[in-house]
Amino acid sequence: MSPIQPNSGKPPVVSIRNLTKVYGNGFKALKGVDLDIREGEILALLGPNGAGKTTMISIVCGLVNPSGGQVTVGGHDVVRDFRATRSMIGLVPQELTTDQFETVINTVTFSRGLHGKGKNPALIEQILKDLSLWEKRDNMLRELSGGMKRRVLIAKALAHEPRILFLDEPTAGVDVTLRRDMWQVVEKLRATGVTIILTTHYIEEAEEIADRVGVINAGELLLIEDKTTLMKKLGAKQLRLELTHPLEAVPPGLESFDLKLVDDGNALVHDYASDETHGNGQGSRIAALMKALSAADVPIGDISTHQSSLEDIFVKLIGERA
């Protein structure tokens, strides 16, 4: 079974239990996924192509039928209560599927009407302005760049004021400026209580804006964790000591510190956990190491540290399950 992180207080806005999907050719896209998504959070789903991210999103949005398990949105079953659940969800798909000969404002307004919402020109205007589309409102979609078309997809997903927004690779092919604007919109939405689930290949985005991170590979949810807890739990650090002249071996008396000689003897490295930097009254392990190095007359020229990034953690997890 995949991990579920407990939800404190309110029930989850999306609840996924033992979700499976097997396609006609026998391919198992999802293998018993369990996941609770909290109201108002930003959850980032990371995984390589074919991991099952898009399949899971498609099932929650009612676009694909599950082979087994159950998904509820706002307490409603996504299969039995499709209309109720779909009205609460906004979806920004990977594909740039738009009517090339329609204007920006018309296609966004039409999307609102598709969900049974009455006209609200002021809201549509605000959405287009937030996404820097207002000046392009009368342009046909075929006249827009790929990045601007992706903004239109986001505008369409927001037009019916969803409680939950799925962003499936929303910044693929988008330049840095447009990407930054999009994340400002995401933050505004979160401030109004909208729950946001995004899949991304840009791990730095997940590291910057997500509250929790899930890692999916081969149809299994390998991990779901608060980002800060994840970084603390799995984010190893490395102390690197550049030497003024090379050594042939680690000096005697330093064996207990698990030092490794690298770069043809020109540097020593020590891997350690974050909590080793905190003293315990008798000095931390790092302080003890530095004292031992000094006593051994190790010729240190420079010292640097490296903190594992979310990308390092992701690559490690995927590699362990390969």
TrEMBL record:
InterPro entries per record: AAA+_ATPase, ABC_transporter-like_ATP-bd, ABC_transporter-like_CS, ABC_transporter_ATP-binding, P-loop_NTPase
Gene3D superfamilies hit by this protein: P-loop containing nucleotide triphosphate hydrolases
Record SUPFAM superfamilies: P-loop containing nucleoside triphosphate hydrolases (SSF52540)
Domain of life according to the entry: Bacteria
Domain ABC transporter per the UniProt entry, residue ranges: 14-243
A GO term, aspect molecular function: ATP binding
Chloroplast recorded as keyword: no
Key words, A-Z: ATP-binding, Nucleotide-binding, Transport
Family in the record: Belongs to the ABC transporter superfamily.
Protein name as annotated: ATP-binding cassette domain-containing protein
Organism, as annotated: Endobacterium cereale
